[in-house]
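User: Could you check the structure of this?
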Amino acid sequence: MSNPLRKYSEYQKRPYYEPLYEKNHSYCDLPAKPKRTKSTKKHRTKRKNFLALVFAGAILSLYGYYVCPYMFNHYFRPLYLNRFLNKDIKINIEPYVYPTRNYLKNSFLIDKNLMVSKAEKSKEITDIQVVSELTDTKNKLISLFQNYPKLHASVFVWEYSTGAGLEINSDEVFPSASIIKIPIAFELIRLIDKTSNTENPVSLTDKRAFTEEFRTLGSGNLQYTRAGNIYSLDYLANTMIADSDNSATNMLLYEIGGIDGFNRAMRNLGLKVTSMAQWLPDLEGENKITAREISKILYNIDNPNYINIKYKNILKEYLGNTKNIHLLKEKLPKDVMILHKTGNIASMLGDSGIIYTDNGKKYIVTILVKRPNNDWSARNLIQDASYLIYNDIKKLN
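Assistant: Sure, the predicted structure tokens are below.
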């Protein structure tokens, strides 16, 4: 017999989880654990991870190549970069928010007028009515443009005595370049004329100090002068047109209410496209015009509903002082008088003005040309087109 005390002592030595039965009993024998075979599941996971990594890399590459430049140009640049570049330009908006602050005395709060007059919409400027089409001239221009396949032109022509004219892409939107200075000058003169009989008139003799926030690159010599110099509005307006001075333009743009004030004035005048998105220089071409609308502004210089004869002659004098005569006027007779303004950026070249022929005709012409980067042939196109138009206008009865 086995010794029960021995079994008991062995039982006490065993861990609590070992069975009480003997290890050599057959009913507790367990099958041997099978050897683990090499599974393909791990390889499938690696393959999936690799494909996912390749797909994610492709998506990120497409995002960086297409989406990031688009987001930068359309969102980051206008929202943040331009704000940073123009951070020093500060506009006093009180005269526009409280237009009656200088003469309404019955309602004040913390030294500010609260009572303002009801805003009135300006009467829209008169449109140009083309009575008859200069069909032969138009066909000649279309044929001429075929010699410049890389260029895309917009033309508006209107002759005063007969009402004849022509249009080629005249309502198509173009970058304005410096031609935007025509409506800026128009609105400045209109402001001076409108306030001439008020208690606080704006005058061309008024002086303004040149400050650093208005100093900008591009055409004109004002950018090289010392901050603090004093200039009259008359001097600024003349150099804006004659020298195409960008710094003077920004000072006058501030005078008429900045970009918002300019755009509001153009909408009130009935111009749907002419607008500004950038202070000058607008090298990216974000300020917009059409050939018809710029011609419409030139036409309304003689409209007494907007500008009296005294101020319209001043505006015409500015336009007659333009120093760049190498576009519309280049191939015309030397004694021909032209009141105009040119525009020149990498993507657009143009000229718009009123031309007086040597036989007494008077006509408005605007030629705008979209071009590849600074393509010099746009200059030749405008010169040839202007010469063609001039000769055909002279023949009108």
